[in-house]
Amino acid sequence: MRNGISFTISASDRQRLQAIVAAPGSPQKHVWRARIVLLSGDGLGTSAIMAETDKSKTCVWRWQERFMHEGVDGLLRDRSRPPGKAPVPPKRVAEIVRLTQAPPPHEATHWTLRAMAKVAGIAASTVQGIWKAHGLSPHRWRHFKLSNDPAFAEKLTTIVGLYVDPPAHAVVLSVDEKSQIQALDRTQPGLPMKKGRAGTMTHDYKRHGTTTLFAALNVLDGTVIAQNMQRHRHQEFIRFLNRIEREVPADKAIHVILDNYAAHKKDKVRAWLDRHPRWTFHFTP
User: Fold this and answer.
1) Which residues have CB under 8 Å from 176's CB, separation 6+?
2) 267 in the same domain as 236
3) Which of 75, 103, 120 is the last residue of a domain?
4) How far is CA 246 from CA 138, 151, 241, 277, in A?
5) Domain that holds residue 35
6) Assigned domain for 200 exists
7) Same domain for 222 and 156
8) Residues 179-184, mean pLDDT to the nearest whole number
9) Which of 39, 157, 261, 273 has the most crowded Cβ, counting Cβ within 10 A?
10) pTM of the model
11) Residue 169 within any structural domain of the chain
């Protein structure tokens, strides 16, 4: 043992220490502290105790000294530590939250940890904890844009109503186009998959121009009427409407939800609608 540390373990203390080591419910920190003292009482040196308990030299000396002064009870409790930093008062937290939600007074787009810490007079880590507790992220933005359509509320109500409560004896279709789709193909035919070998395809491909996909989704049953065409004009849109007209039963009214693309509002499209009274277009705002 270190110079200045000397003790003798009484029979009662040894019995108590052995009970701590043997008890299944003993905390591990109490077990290895008791083993340090027991090994010391058996005459083992510091190096041997370190090897047996896998503890450092200073740790062994600390608990030998604790036993010498306080006995077994000293091994079962931890020394009280000095109190940490006092928590930030609620009023000050509320003020930091208020400042965070307001624009910074200096030339910046948003508050930073260092800037807020300097203004509030607290550590940046404390500011970070307050922001996290209140779900604040001044560096993040969520973009939005409100529609300036004067009939926004009316159109919104109509379209949501068609989705949520479609009219009886009618088909509700959501129509859109995907243009400029690359029509690609492999340069050579691949081989099919067979036992022990995956299917093959060439690493390169050739272009066949572009295509436009016209699609109408039946919002009630999820079926899709689709057609590919080379161009994306009102002529192709009318051809697609004719395709839908042929496939939807004649006794059903047709309500179409679509965007404000110019080809959807062409005069010839409107003339087509006049000739097909069961059709109704509903434009999004």
Assistant:
1) 215, 258, 259
2) yes
3) 75
4) 55, 32, 9, 15
5) 11-75
6) no
7) yes
8) 89
9) 39
10) 0.51
11) yes
